[in-house]
Design goal:
Blueprint (H helix, E strand, L loop, with lengths): L1 E7 L5 E5 L5 H4 L10 E10 L10 E3 L10 E3 L4
Antiparallel strand pairs: 1-2, 1-3, 4-5
């Protein structure tokens, strides 16, 4: 399920909402002040889940300023 990042325009609180895409607008309520006056922060969208036989590995980003692109890492068996 995707995780969306929001920032409250009233109090500045940053928070995340994990829900289906159809419910993201109704669940976007600031936990600090309760307002719906929030803006979505666009960056990366995180998907929660776990590795299965269909998704056995993962991408790994090398560290450093001028590191290359992410590389695929096979799972250890």
């Amino acid at each position: 399920m995707p995780t969306y990042e929001y920032r409250c325009t009233a109090c500045g609180e940053a928070f995340e909402v994990t829900c289906p895409i159809a419910e993201r607008e109704q669940k976007a309520v600031c936990p600090a002040c309760g307002t719906r006056d929030v803006r979505q922060v666009f960056g990366s969208i995180a998907f929660s889940g776990h590795r299965t036989e269909f998704n056995p590995g993962h991408f790994e980003r090398p560290g450093g300023k001028k590191a290359g692109p992410p590389r695929w890492v096979e799972p250890k068996r």
